[in-house]
Amino acid sequence: MSKPTIDTAALGEKILRVIKTIYDPEIPVDIYELGLIYDVFVNEDFEVKILMTLTTPNCPVAETLPLEVEEKVKSINEVKDAEVEITFDPPWSQELMSEEAKLELGML
């Protein structure tokens, strides 16, 4: 019996919509627009791996933010499992922020 086919692009969009509801508590911009999400992988078993960073290694939400991302992505029906991997390579910098985030923070 073959696995049901799923539109991974559509699932990717759903994942991004969920990620865009998560905000850095110190900055009024979502973590996607801040440039904290480096990559999102979805395999054929609908397991998601998210490569993300934090604004600093001693970020006050270093423990809770990756968990929040994992939990919210796992809440999507099609997603079987989600894992967040934190990396500081490359380190986050303001250049990673979207134009929207820079505008929101008065940097443009």
Write the topology of this structure.
Layout: H1 8-19, E1 37-42, E2 47-52, H2 64-74, E3 81-86, H3 99-104
Parallel strand pairs: 2-3
Antiparallel strand pairs: 1-2
Structural key phrases:
GMP Synthetase, Chain A, domain 3, 3 strands, 108 residues, three-stranded mixed beta sheet
In short:
The protein is globular. With 108 residues, the chain is an alpha+beta fold. It has one domain (8-92): GMP Synthetase, Chain A, domain 3 (2-Layer Sandwich).
CATH topology: GMP Synthetase, Chain A, domain 3
Task: Give the low-pLDDT segments.
Answer: none
Q: What is the string of helix and strand elements?
A: HEEHEH
Give the percentage of residues in beta strands.
Answer: 15-25%
Structural class, from secondary structure content? alpha+beta
Query: At the first level of CATH, what is the class?
Result: Alpha Beta
Rg value: 15 Å
Structure explained in plain terms:
The protein is α+β, with helices and mostly antiparallel strands and 108 residues long. The chain has a single domain, classed as 2-Layer Sandwich (GMP Synthetase, Chain A, domain 3), CATH 3.30.300. It is 27% helix and 17% strand. A three-stranded mixed β-sheet has the order 1-2-3, covered by helices on one side. A hairpin with a 4-residue loop joins strand 1 and strand 2. The model has no long low-confidence stretch (mean pLDDT 91). This is FeS assembly SUF system protein.
